[in-house]
Amino acid sequence: MKVMKLPNHLEPAQLWDSVLKVQTFKGVDTKILKKLFISEASLAILQDCFWWWFLHKFKPDQAEQDHLFDRISDSFVALLLSTPSFIKDPFFQMYPDCLSQAIYVTFCEAFPESRLRFTDEFKEELMDLVFQWIRGFKPQKSAWKKWNLFWLEAPLTQTQKTDSLHKLSSLKLQNSVIKTRSIGKSWSRSPIADQPQVHFQLEKEEPKEVEVTPKKKAESHYIGDGPDFQRSLFNLGGQSPLVVYYLKMHGISNTLANMRAYRINHIEICKVPSASPTYRDAIAESQKIAEKRHNDFLNFEHKCADELAHLQRQRKKVNRTYKRMLATITKKRTESRLQTESFISQRETPKPCHSASTSASTSTVSSAAEDLP
User: Given 112, 326, 329, 352, which residue has the most CB atoms within 10 angstroms?
Assistant: First the structure.
């Protein structure tokens, strides 16, 4: 059973290797784990999951998606049976997360100029799907934030952003949009020589070598109440949905379905509050306000200092004027005393015209007195 090749000449083994390089394996044999990840069944799962997600997001085709899901369930059961029991639990605990990362890396490498289209919501939906297929329930909200795919998360240059915006539909496969009939044939069990060749022509510029330094962003809790939770029953004796589907597809009786099921309350997050503002944001905003107030205080202090300096200059000017006038008055004290006495004497001496009129009045009064009998 041949698997549809990935676009842009990508090799699934290399994609798995790029994801495994940034993973942390504790308490397990890494060599065995890596062999399981790059096994034939695991490579087929990656390729089929990529095409299923591609059709689901950009070219829905239920019939072809169902056919792909059949192949995915077959490959998963093959991987499950080939995994040694001593490493089965740790392997399948990390497998859904690593598979989600590998699918995301495949999209970014296959369509590098459409990175703006692979948003956080894209990653969230992808993880929910993979975890529900393998485990039967969704992962923690925003679990993709723990991915260490720093070489894909490097900020775009302005030119790359412009190109991405102009080519937001660059997921188009020019003259080679996957034809439903062609895909159906390529997934058949016919020999590889009979399979149609699909050529992917992606318009892109030559990749530029950019040195990327990984930098872990500091996390901070959001302000306010926490998320809302809901309880759901979880079957401890249940199986992976892919396994259940495989048994049903091949008509194999599920013996565990007839056994007593032990169900527990499984707590899930049903509503996640807004991721912002966080306490770090609040602290940063408080620091900005404090800095602004400090700057305002300094400006006010400088303004007051300028006004005080102006008043000091005015005061010195008035003092100089006063001292100059005082020096002019006290320069020649004798002359000033004589001028003052002369002025006072002039004010006290009677006017001449007034004395003559008084004498005349006295003579007239005397004559009048002599004429009296």
Answer: 112
> If you write DSSP's letter for every residue of 118-156 in order, what string do you get?
S-HHHHHHHHHHHHHHHTSS---TTGGGG---TTTSSPP
The set of residues, in sequence order, having a beta carbon less than 8 Å from that of 39 and lying 6+ positions away, is: 79, 82
157 with 60, same domain: the answer is: yes
pLDDT tens-digit profile of 162-186?
Answer: 444 344 444 444 333 344 334 344 4
Indicate whether 192 belongs to any domain.
Answer: yes
Tens of pLDDT, residues 64-95: 999 999 999 999 999 999 999 898 888 999 99
What pTM value is reported for the model? Answer: 0.57
Q: How far apart are CA 314 and CA 347, in angstroms?
A: 40
| Domain boundaries, position 297 | 280-346
When divided into structural domains, the chain yields a total of 2
Q: How far apart are the first and last CA of the chain?
A: 176
